[in-house]
Write a structure and sequence with these properties.
434 residues; alpha/beta; protoporphyrinogen ix oxidase, domain 3; 3 domains; 7-stranded mixed beta sheet; 6-stranded mixed beta sheet; 13 helices; 20 strands
Length: 434
């Protein structure tokens, strides 16, 4: 049976990997690389080549699917766990928030800090998220953590991450996200020696070993959604067509809608309603280590970014000795001013703002790159409902189908596997009818 997967991010790779070997599988990717937000690049630095991911990635405690594939791809001996430190930019400087002493020193009344600790340790551990489906994030956090904690921490964190007022974000989405991340901070973060590109390489190698095809630089121009799916794409200036019995779409829903010629009206309405945030990530190679914390969220509202990571404090082999890789990131709507700025303008804006937090920061920059992801994160509003898994031989996978899971490598892979399982069951049904 012929299966075409469009989109070579982790969801598409996982779907193709699972279906290859059983069926005639072809994966089409518009870019010249695979992995999507999990893709990486090589950088020559002090006479050695380093693999650096384009955006920040870590493996949280309980990311079983990612860890299972690390084992499946023979990478278990490179998997490491490490206790990391976190902090916040608050009132113009980095404040630690990883130990009882640091938390006690944080400039908040003791009563509020105790209430915040209770919220993190107990309220975020709940299992019955469905009971909060009609409750917004502001209402839930204020009730359980208090007004002061909401105003200092969560209000800005929510606006940074979701680019929406807390009243518009569902409590289950916020809760499941903070629950998993906060529990991992209490334990250890996982990282892969040699970089996460090895996971992408493992999927690619596995697909090819099972005689699946991967076609890069395949810009899709039309999807004819008939009983037999017909995908028209352009590669190296040549127009080509491929037919399939089953199609797996691992691309953003609005991109799919722009390409497909016919689709069920109700499904179209659901896919059209899904909104995304874009992401700008400035990656810098520094001649020193100016921040000894892995993850620092920004609470000050006058900064142009929302979070930064000292990548090398987790990925110990990502930089020469004594040097470091740092990600400075923000989420935004693609039509906002920053999205229209040049890479150099972004670098100057972000580096200049880092100087306000860490004086002299920009003097340590040895190299830098800016990466932009237009469809970085689906926005889970109060009335969000996952769209259907399939419609008439088309299966959907991606981060817009993972609610209320958090967006990470594991959930992206799981979405691809879910689409592959659905496609496999449909193909079995076709075989029985035949």
């Amino acid at each position: 049976m012929r299966v075409v997967v469009i989109g070579g991010g982790l969801s598409g790779l996982a779907a193709a990997y699972r279906l290859a070997g059983k069926h005639e599988v072809t994966l089409l990717e518009e870019k010249d690389y695979l992995g999507g937000m999990a893709s990486s690049y090589s950088i020559e630095w002090d006479g050695k080549t380093y693999s650096v991911s384009k955006t920040y990635h870590h493996i949280l405690d309980g990311d079983k699917t990612t860890i299972d594939f690390i084992r499946e791809f023979g990478l278990e001996d490179k998997f490491r766990k490490k206790k990391v430190r976190q902090g916040f930019v608050f009132q113009g400087s980095v404040k630690g928030f990883s130990s009882p002493l640091e938390i006690l020193k944080f400039p908040l009344p003791l009563r509020d800090k105790l209430r915040l600790a209770k919220f993190i340790l107990f309220d975020l551990k709940r299992q019955d998220w469905d009971s909060l489906k009609d409750v917004n994030a502001k209402e839930w956090v204020t009730k359980n953590a208090g007004k002061r904690n909401f105003e200092v921490f969560f209000d800005q964190l929510i606006r940074n991450k979701f680019h929406s007022p807390p009243e518009d974000i569902s409590a289950p989405w916020l809760g499941t996200r903070f629950s998993k991340e906060s529990s991992s901070f209490l334990k250890k973060f996982g990282w892969l020696e040699g970089g996460v590109s090895q996971i992408v390489d493992g999927f690619e190698r596995g697909i090819k070993d099972k005689r699946g095809r991967i076609i890069r630089n395949a810009k899709i121009v039309k999807i004819r959604n008939k009983k037999t799916k017909e995908i028209v794409y352009v590669q190296n200036g040549k127009r080509k067509t491929i037919n399939s019995d089953v199609l797996v779409s691992a691309i953003p829903p609005k991109t799919f809608l722009r390409l497909v010629d016919r689709i069920d009206k109700d499904l179209k309405k659901k896919l059209e309603s899904i909104e995304y945030l874009s992401c700008i990530c400035l990656c810098m190679g520094l001649k020193n280590t100016l921040v000894n914390r892995y993850w620092v969220n920004v609470l000050d509202r006058d900064l142009p970014f929302s979070v930064f990571f000292n990548h090398s404090s987790l990925y110990e082999d990502s930089a020469p000795p004594g040097k470091s890789v740092m990600f400075v990131t923000t989420y935004l709507k693609s039509k906002e001013r920053q999205w229209e700025m040049s890479d150099r303008e972004i670098m100057k804006l972000y580096a200049g703002s880092m100087n306000r937090i860490i004086p002299g920061f920009s003097k340590g920059i040895e190299w830098w790159k800016v990466f932009r992801i237009e469809f970085a994160e689906a926005v889970y509003s109060m009335d969000f409902v996952n769209p259907p898994l399939s419609s008439k031989g088309v299966y959907f996978s991606g981060i817009y189908r993972i609610f209320p899971k958090i967006r990470n490598m594991a959930s992206a892979i799981e979405s691809g596997l879910e689409a592959a399982e659905g496609a496999e069951n449909e193909i079995k049904g076709m075989d029985i009818k035949d």
